[in-house]
Amino acid sequence: MPIEDAKLAAWQAEIAQEFESEIKVHFAAEEQIVFPAARTFGELNPLIEDLLADHQWLRASFAKAEARQSSQAELLAFTRRLSEHVRKEERRLFERLQELMPKEELSKLGHALERALESASQVCSLPNPKK
User: Fold this and answer.
1) Once rounded to an integer, what is the mean pLDDT over residues 93-105?
2) How many Cβ atoms from other residues are within 10 Å of residue 29's Cβ?
3) pTM for this model (two decimals)
4) In this structure, are residues 88 and 38 in contact, taking their beta carbons and an 8 Å threshold?
């Protein structure tokens, strides 16, 4: 679905706000907690490298949106890549970790991730009245 030119700045502002309030913390938690745990299983290393490349690309896209320099096409590519990234984590990384990790380790990992994400969950996102 195309983004109207008049709404492009609002979309970029919302994307930048989401990154600051939630996604930045989420990426950091994955990189500091989940990915190192996953690296203990050699078969997951290529997937981790792919997810880290996604994080790098997505961070650059968030920065471009924050600077209000994203085009419609770039915002659409961004939304596709972010959606694919989330599916990749859920369907490939997390499912495989559930198969490979002992339940006790998986539980510890889950608790550590929960603690790391607490700051993001306590942020109150206000609706954008210009939507």
Assistant:
1) 96
2) 20
3) 0.82
4) no
